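Sequence only, no structure available. Ideas?
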Amino acid sequence: MPFSLWISLVAICAMGAMSPGPSLALVLRHTLGGGRAPGVVAAISHALGVGFYALLTVWGLGALVVRVPPLFQAITWVGAGYLAWLGIKALRAGRAGALEASAMATTQRQAAREGVLVALGNPKLILFFVALLSQFVTPEMSVAAKAVIVLTAMLIDGGWYVLVAVSLSHSRVLPWLQARAHWINRLTGVLLLALALRVVAGPLGGA
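Reply:
I predicted one. Tokens follow.
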């Protein structure tokens, strides 16, 4: 892959990773609930989910999923249901307030699971990759070049959210955020529920 083309790929992946949304809120929540380690684990596991969709794209399976409405709708409903469940959990924790630290406590195992599933539960990532990453894939492209595309998407996504988790877990930042944890939980819950509704509305609106 020419270097100039790779730079364009990097720019697209960076814009996708840095846009605010439920993924950022999830990393923030796990960082607040367990400190730096769960936040970093959530970031890395989210990147694995992104890498899975990138792999589908370079194999051409992402476009196939989009072209098969029943399959895409099944992924949509399962993903939306999981995102809505996470959103409700966050809202319930938010009502408990910052005085009950256990209400938002988290573990590395939980962070790993939710990081992957939030990425996989968003089938609009398939649309993002099919619309954008597929432009970098050609029939004659080598396996090594396809691997570069997948690894680039994963490393940029994971690197950005690891940076977020490390920055937020700084000793001067974390106490300030934890004092406002109930508001952050509410924001996380609203974002996850909004994404669930948007995921459901997308395929239904296009049907």
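DSSP finds ten helices and no strands in the chain.
Hope that gets you unstuck.
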